[in-house]
Amino acid sequence: MADLRPVDVLISAEDIQRRVAELAADIHRDFPDGVHLIAVLKGAFIFMADLVRHLEGRVSLDFIAVSSYAKGTTSSGEVRMLKDLDYALDGKDVVIVEDIVDTGITLSYLKEILKARGPRNLRTACLLSKPSRRKVDVKVEYIGFTIEDRFVVGYGLDFDEQFRQLPYIGVMDAGLYANIHAKQERIAHGSGEKMRKVGAPGAHLGEVGLRRVAHPYPHPAVFFGNGIGARAQV
Ligand code: IMP
Fold first, then answer.
1. Residues 91, 198: Cα–Cα separation, whole Å
2. Each residue of 203-219: pLDDT tens digit?
3. Which of 42, 94, 113, 194 has a beta carbon 3.0–4.6 Å from 119's, enabling a disulfide?
4. Which of 50, 93, 99, 102 is catalytic?
């Protein structure tokens, strides 16, 4: 595994903490009687943990996990539920807590399925938003920071499951990014190198029919084999 480090700090830990406190104050102002937060795993786990510690009043929590994948080589953006909620939503004031809204496909799917469960209110808090990438027009009531089209890591966001622990939002090194991309191009063209299944460390898909990036983001590390999210070993 290459030693990958983000080189640029895009948003400092201090700025994040300040903004998260402001978002919590906005949420409390809108829901003074309390709120039910739903964090979208895994990316939102740190944002959720900080947000909840700034919230006054009654707060309950739940977690949901989804993964995005595409059909064929186009970015049709289907979303799959990996872990459902533990609690019902009827009559609750609910805020979805997301790390980043990029194309908006994941969030619009989530809002659709959660709305059908009868919450009194359903709003969304996203730490980051990349509006230039939007494919689906989805409303986000609480946005931490609006950023340009860069691939970011840290504060819960990952690159190949790395960097989630960083206290700041960083930008990947462009050179390393290019190297990874070149290696994965070789893999995609059948050089025989193996793929590792995300979520199953050490498991190898071997010579599967690899298709190029399923996520609409031009993320060089994401490939799909047999419909399963997979990333090249680097
Ligand atoms: P969307 O469905 O395109 O809006 O994608 C949302 C998901 O894509 C997020 O919850 C992240 O998991 C992932 N994602 C999008 N952009 C980035 C990024 O810059 N860094 C890390 N993950 C990202």
1. 36
2. 222 222 222 223 333 33
3. 94
4. 102
